[in-house]
Amino acid sequence: MKTTISEVKKHEGEVVTIGAWLANKRSSGKIAFLQLRDGTGFMQAVVAKNDVSEEVFQLAKDMTQESSMYITGTIVEDKRSPLGFEMQVNDIELIHEAVDYPITPKEHGTEFLMDHRHLWLRSKKQHAVMKIRNEIIRATYQFFNDNGYVKIDPPILTGSSAEGTTELFHTKYFDEEAYLSQSGQLYMEAAAMAFGKVFSFGPTFRAEKSKTRRHLIEFWMIEPEMAFVNHEESLEIQEQYVSFVVQSVLENCRLELNILERDTAKLEQIKAPFPRISYDDAIDLLKEKGFTDIEWGEDFGAPHETAIAESFDKPVFIINYPKDIKAFYMKPHPEREEVVLCADLIAPEGYGEIIGGSQRIDDLELMKQRYEEHGLTGQAYEWYLELSKYGSVPHSGFGLGLERTVAWLAGVDHVRETIPFPRLLNRLYP
Ligand code: 4AD
Ligand code: MG
């Protein structure tokens, strides 16, 4: 009977066949221990000289790393392994012999591993990170579907910018100038006016020459947008959503968190509500913490965010930033012209901003004025202005960066390991 490593728990005591690769092995005179992987998991297979033919024992002893096989044997309990089971082998059929696999069990430098990303993905830790990424995506769909949101897919080729004009990838669209999407937000606002509560999940692009552990050139964003929802209500949705995702990962990725040696006690406490701190108070807090140069009106960098996050053991919302350092579409605070109804959600443990969100301007005249102030003129925005012209309503939304969230939950310190094939400042390969 053919099965997979993820299913062996259902086959204790039975003889099964698994299609697998050899991740690692060790052998002594009469026994060989094969570390198998099949994509669904990792498992040890024990080949005892007395249980198999001479050829099969020789094959097991000689087999090279990443060779592929069909392997047949009995599934038995093994309390010491994280999986809880191992295989006592009867037979092995070699499918393909791998020669000189470049990633050996010894240590390799990051650049070398990144150059071999297409193979590195097979390793145990990378596998665990991608499984956590997958669980975050699954939990995201569940959360928004269960709460009455409609998934809407905004375009990737666009004629206008959503987050400022400096970080755009330009491309030709036949005779027109086009850009790769920085954010689906403006389209999601149109969708919210048609469907009420919507969310998107897709790739976004920033031609940003930053080389930090939090920046990718291509990253994936989840962008919910809600009609008739104000800023405070949006914060409640955000904390519910993030809590749900964290608890789902804890529940469904025990093995992976274990492989990554993630301190799960820190994640257990991530439950709504999350603390809120105003931008003004954040400035004071930073001054107290020794950032004496920071002035009201300046944006926060990674060291500032980390310092603020240190004061809390849950993610923290920094609310009401100065309007001059935020995007054109954010609604001004009703009592304070100089700040906007927005929040960045900062993850604990130094993982940085994972969400940016705001209530949006819903007044046509103010929107036109902001356009002019930001130099965003032209036909490309006409459709967007029409949203404030025909039945404008209060509405809010936010964007959660998937890779930074994976980095936080998996406890990986650089976002390059949180996406299968990272696009970085100096990397378009593989
Ligand atoms: O704060 P940002 O730029 O917000 C927007 O794009 C809004 N239009 C979203 C919205 O309201 N619909 O980006 C949102 C999140 C950030 O908090 C961060 O997690 C992630 O996207 N992000 C990046 N992740 C990796 N690499 C980059 N270069 C990123 N830039 C933003
Ligand atoms: Mg932001």
Protein described:
Helix 4 packs across helix 6 (231-252). It is built from 13 helices and 17 strands. It is elongated. It folds into two domains: 5-96, OB fold (Dihydrolipoamide Acetyltransferase, E2P) (Beta Barrel), CATH 2.40.50.140; 117-417, 2-Layer Sandwich (BirA Bifunctional Protein, domain 2), CATH 3.30.930. The strands form three sheets. It has an eight-stranded mixed sheet. A five-stranded mixed β-barrel has the order 2-3-4-6-5. Strands 8-10-9 form a three-stranded antiparallel sheet, with no helix packed on it. It starts with a strand and ends in a 20-residue tail after the last helix. The chain has helices at 54-62, 110-115, 117-120, 124-146, 185-195, 231-252, 254-259, 265-268, 279-288, 302-309, 364-373, 382-387, 402-410, and strands spanning 2-3, 15-28, 31-37, 42-48, 68-77, 85-96, 150-151, 157-158, 170-173, 176-180, 197-205, 218-227, 276-278, 316-319, 342-347, 352-359, 395-401. Helix content is 30%, strand content 26%. With 430 residues, the chain is α+β, with helices and mostly antiparallel strands. The protein binds 4-amino-1,4-dioxobutan-2-aminium adenosine-5'-monophosphate and magnesium ion (MG).
Features:
single chain, alpha+beta, OB fold (Dihydrolipoamide Acetyltransferase, E2P), BirA Bifunctional Protein, domain 2, eight-stranded mixed sheet, elongated, binds 4-amino-1,4-dioxobutan-2-aminium adenosine-5'-monophosphate
